[in-house]
Structures are given as C-alpha cells and as structure tokens.
Design a protein that fits this description.
Mean pLDDT: 86
Strand content: 35-45%
Low-confidence stretches: 1-23
C-alpha cells in the first residue's frame, strides 16, 4: 500500500511540474482575432525557399501602395528589403528565428512586423505545422488545392479570418478581420 501511495505522489508531482512549464517567446504576439494570440513559428517550418524580387501591391482601408521588394525566406531567415521604383532602400524586415528587426520609411513606426511575418508564414510554411499551431489557440488552418491554385484559410469557427491564394508566381493575402490585403508577384529572372 505504501508503494502505491508513493507512486501516486510521484505521479501527481510530475503532473504539477508539467503544468508549470512556461514557454518563453522572444517575439511579440500577433492577435489573429481580438482574443486569440499566435507567436511566430520556427524557421525550420518553411516549405521550400524563396530568393527573388517580388512586386508588392497592397491595400489597407482606402490606402493603396505598390513597392518592389527582395525576399529571402528559408530555414535560416526571413528577410524582406523594400525598394522604391528607383531601387532605393525603403526599409528592411528581418527574422532570424528569435528576433525581429524592422525599419521602414514607408510603413508607420507602430506597425508590428510580426503581423507581416505571420502572413508570410501562413503563405509559405508547411501545412502540418500551421494546422497544429492554430489548433492550439482554438482556430483552424485549412488548405485546399484546386488545379494549379492553392487556397489556405485561417478560420474562427466558420468565419474566415484570412484567405491566402497561391497561383503560379503570385500570392494574394487577404485579411477579412483587419481589412487589408496584398499581392506578391515574383519577378521574372
């Protein structure tokens, strides 16, 4: 009987120890909804690699913008250099897996770069990793393939929060909750 009590105490203590484990996040949270928070995922979840110029057409509310950017996305970094029509540097976003650095003459200073990075991760990361991460916060991540088009959805119940459409060298990210969208079109070599 003493052995059973001892084993039950050890088991209970091990459960208590597990429940107090805290995950330390090194980046700011991203509010996918007004109450559901995501953190950036590790870089090793990147699906493939990107190393190219992209034409970025965006809209936030009534404001529209077009920029050229140079994107590097792989298992070591996400880097986006923003350029104007003349190729002049307009800003830079860097994520090395533990920290985010963002400077820009185009976007407001209070813009959290983690929101842009999460959109990039939603578009280019492995489906399984995204599904697991969203499920953990009470949301769903779905992917369907329709011919040459890949459609990804982040949903809160039946409501589509974000819709990502990938077709050939073009990616459209549309956030229905926050009211913005942008298209990335890979430049010709």
């Amino acid at each position: 009987m003493k052995k059973i009590v001892f084993l039950l105490i050890i088991f209970a203590l091990s459960l208590a120890g597990c429940s107090t484990t805290k995950i330390e996040h090194t980046t700011s949270p991203v509010y996918v909804t007004n109450t559901k928070v995501m953190y950036l995922l590790p870089l090793e979840n990147m699906e493939g690699e990107i190393d190219s110029y992209q034409l970025l057409n965006g809209r936030f509310g009534d404001s529209k913008f077009t920029l050229l950017c140079y994107m590097i996305c792989n298992s070591r970094e996400i880097s986006i250099d923003l350029l104007n029509d003349f190729g002049t540097d307009m800003g830079n976003l860097q994520y090395d897996g533990s920290s985010v650095n963002f400077t820009s003459a185009v976007f407001p200073e209070n813009l959290k770069a983690e929101y842009i990075l999460l959109d990039i991760q939603n578009a280019y990361y492995q489906v399984g990793a995204l599904q697991e991460a969203y499920k953990a916060v009470g949301l769903s991540f779905e992917e369907e393939i329709q011919g040459e088009t890949v459609i990804r959805k982040i949903k809160n119940g039946k409501k589509i929060i974000e819709l990502i459409t990938k077709n050939g060298n073009s990616v459209k990210i549309q956030n229905n909750l926050r009211g913005y969208e942008y298209n990335l079109t890979e430049g010709e070599e």
